[in-house]
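Sharing a chain and its predicted structure for anyone who wants a worked example. Both blocks are below, sequence first, tokens second.
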Amino acid sequence: MWDKRPDTIVHERSPFNAEPAPSALCGHQITPVDTFYSRNHGPIPDIATGDWQLTIDGPATTPQALSFADLTTGFGTHEVIATLQCAGNRRTGFNRVHDIPGEDPWGPGATSTAQWRGARLRDVLRATGVPDDPSLHVAFGAPDVSDLATPTQPYGGSIPLPKAMSEEVLLAWDMNGAPLPRVHGGPVRVVVPGYIGARSVKWITAITVQSAPSENFFQASAYRILPADADPESARPGDGISLSSVALNCDVLAPQDGATVPAGPVTLRGYAFAGDDRTVERVEVSRDGGTTWAPADLQPASSRWSWRFWSFSLRAAPGPLRVTVRAWDSTGSTQPETAAALWNPKGYANNSWATARYDVT
């Protein structure tokens, strides 16, 4: 579907939610479009560039309405290589702790990297006279209507104005050197590097500068984390913390978890990613469940907003082999040890240590 690879793991056809097989991500600093994961909350809109229009308003701005030609010729063009990651990435680790009904069982492939090209959001906002007020928020509206929301409504979300005014945030119309595909938000989407993918709103048609975060269901009720001592059964809509920056994360891509591998030299490969103002500095691998660790080889990142690939070579003896992987970021922080300590009813943000198990023959 949607010109994806034959080995794509499709979780839902409508709305279309799919991730690549883990091994398909290996070797591609820039993820091919046919491999890039797809996360949707409703039917995928079909908007011709000639019909697309972006409205921008808010109490402190001068309202504007931009056509596709206005956007692509009037604000300069910029590029950023950025990794997007679904907040539900690696949810299968949570499912091993406790079943999460009604949510797609994302593996490690709900993360991908592209070269995005478009106008800086801050240039568009400045044209409306937006004030330099860090307490403001920039809300995004889109035409894709989701019946997952209560009540049913179009998708939306928001980010704080300081993030919106950062040079890396784009209104993108190009992905990997070609027009942005419809399934990935074409003709225009927001790209918010370092934040969960839910804030990179696709098919963007409205921007509102306002005094509070968006009241859209997918900002005000969904994509939130409850405090550790909260009772999920008694939680009310809006409780908890709204997700923003991507949590430090890593996983093994190849050989895939559960594979049978021959005895002898084995090279593990994977990715690590740290959101927003952090970078991945180290990845470590353990063969004894976390008692001892050895450093993996880290490849350079394509940009400060992209993942880093890592590799680790070992000799495997016949029998079961279990490896554990963790990353460290530029703040000196590492990942939580277990998914059990992070479990939540929606299965958001599983950034616990990654494990892979093999049968060595």
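Comments welcome. DSSP finds six helices and 23 strands in the chain.
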